[in-house]
Amino acid sequence: MSSIPAFALRRRQFLQAGAACATIGLPGPGWAASDGLAVTLRPGPARVSMVGDAAPATAVWAYNGATPGPALRLPQGTPFRAAVTNGLAETTTVHWHGMRLPNGMDGVPGLTQRPIPPGGRFDYAFTPPDAGTFWYHSHDHSLEQMGRGLAGALVVEEAEPPTVDRDLLWTIQDWRLDPDAQIAPGFNNHMEIAMDGRVGNTVTINGRLPETLHVRAGERIRLRLLNAAIARIMALQFEGHVPVIVALDGQPCAPHTPADGRILLGPAMRADVMLDMQGEPGRRYRVVDAFYDRLAYTLVRIAYDARPPLRAHPLDAPLRLPPNPVPRPDLASAIVHEVRLQGGMMGGGMMMSMGNGGGMMGMGGAAWAINGRSMTGDGSADMPPLFAIERGRSCILDFRNETAWWHPMHLHGHSFQVLDRDGEDVPHDEWGDTVLVRPRERVRVAFVADNPGDWMLHCHVMEHQIGGLMTTLRVG
Ligand code: C2O
Ligand code: CU
Ligand code: CU
Fold first, then answer.
1. Does 268 sit in the ligand 1 pocket, CB within 6 Å?
2. Which residue ranges in the chain fall short of pLDDT 50?
3. CB burial of residue 179 (10 Å; 0-12, 13-18, 19+)
4. Please, are residues 165 and 32 in contact by the beta-carbon 8 Å criterion?
């Protein structure tokens, strides 16, 4: 397999190109789009230029030499195959985050497959039922393997996509780099496990420190945002613009502008937004991430070229995406399960000190627990599921965050409807596979347990997952 150097594109193009510059195992002659997509993915060590050509290349772990890995695109309802050959010195798996796929393809070591040994191969195959913005990442030694770069986007295209001028993808990653642009050691830091995880110091878009997104006034852009960070939560604000959210975690919602203008994305979460570029020709606008108080920073700038607007008025094509075939849960007959999130440093606030006796709860060395039990590391197949659900039954997960920290809670193999937060109905018909639960908040989600197997339910802050904020559900 050959590969185009990942960053051969000129800088001004890279934000537009997504990660499409990485070569994937391309289909042979006679291959039609309706045949789906077959790719080869090789996780292994690589060096990439991440923070600029003047800085040294960064040693990462990457799929096919690039991080994020190749941006995979295929039409909804067509077969997907990925031959994964392990070029790492340790075992790995690939998880297809958000996909409603057969359990054996879910990529959870010990639970759904044997981990792929160094030099070994595993073939994944499934047909995505839903269109939308999804992603893939390692699920073995996941804190470090994801933290070193093993993640990429998987876009499933609608048969009839909405009318836009451009469809862009931002895979956003967060790194803790030392002054030589190398990934700082110290994964598995005790304090970070019990607090907000390994938040880094360098945020990249599509694998590079972003500079500028060049746009033309009047164009409509569909922007697919993917938070592929291992711990950083983001609240994106588009200065001077009104983004309209049309999908969350790949699933269409009622088009709406985000509350207080901030697109809130926990690790693993995606938002598809429609942006009508109504700024002034020649002007620049900032995209700011303002999640952490006092630590707001400019993620990237939007620069309008001098040309007159592409059209006089914004497009009036509809924004709503076609629906996916996700079953709607029956709330009247749904079984309700409480999922209590516990542990972490108590007392609230990011500045809490370790020495005031308010440390971790006693959970056998684990920092976190769900309903009093801690599944740590990458999971343990011998721990019984939190509960079992009869196949086809509607189920409500009643998350109660008893901790002082935020948790993006993720369920494998299903998409759920977000019902309410602290008793208040969630507007806009929101669905997802990951729901961001605020400190002390109660959030209820509902889904039809129609996909048989044992499925992971865990926090997607990777330190929280390995520190015990993980369990499984059994559908069967
Ligand atoms: Cu995105 Cu269990 O993972
Ligand atoms: Cu997942
Ligand atoms: Cu968490």
1. yes
2. 1-29, 348-362
3. exposed
4. no
**464 Cβ inside 6 Å of ligand 1:** no
75's tokens: 């039409």
Bridging pattern class, strands 58-63 and 43-48: antiparallel
Kindly give, in sequence order, each residue whose CB lies less than 8 Å from that of residue 53, ignoring residues fewer than 6 positions away.
Answer: none
Domains with residue ranges and CATH for the chain: 6-161 (2.60.40.420), 169-304 (2.60.40.420), 335-475 (2.60.40.420)
**Does residue 458 have its Cβ closer than 6 Å to ligand 1?**
yes
Q: How far does the chain reach from its first CA to its final CA, in angstroms?
A: 41
For 351, list phi and psi in degrees, rounded to 5.
-100, 10
CB atoms within 10 A of CB 51: 17
* Residues whose Cβ atom is located within 5 A of ion ligand 3: 407, 459, 461, 464
Query: Dihedral angle at the C-alpha atoms of 214, 219, 220, 225, nearest 10 degrees?
Result: 0
For residue 294, the model assigns a pLDDT of 83
24 Cα to the center of ligand 1, angstroms: 23
Rounded CA separation 348/287 (Å): 29
8 A C-beta contact, residue 128 and residue 77: yes
Check: CB of residue 448 under 8 Å from CB of residue 327.
Answer: yes
Catalogue the long-range contacts made by 21-27 (C-beta closer than 8 Å, 24 or more residues apart). 21/66, 22/63, 22/64, 22/65, 22/66, 22/69, 22/70, 22/71, 23/64, 23/70, 24/64, 24/70, 24/72, 25/1, 25/83
| Global pTM value | 0.91
Identify which of 81, 82, 85 has the alpha carbon closest to the alpha carbon of residue 121: 85
Q: What is the pLDDT of residue 355?
A: 31
- DSSP string covering 250-302: TEEEEEEPPGGG-EEE-TT-EEEEEEE--S-TT-EEEEEE--STT--EEEEEE
pLDDT of residue 364: 61
Instruction: Please write the tens of the pLDDT for every residue from 363-382.
Output: 567 899 999 999 999 888 78
**What's the CA gap between 318 and 171, in Å, rounded?**
25
Q: What is the pLDDT of residues 304-344, one digit of tens each?
A: 999 999 998 999 999 999 999 999 999 999 999 999 999 99
CB-hemisphere CA count at 13 Å for 430? 26
Q: Tell me, what DSSP letter sits at residue 429?
A: -
pLDDT given at position 32? 57
Residue 176 near ligand 1, beta carbon < 6 Å: no
Nearest residue by C-alpha to atom 1 in ligand 1:
97
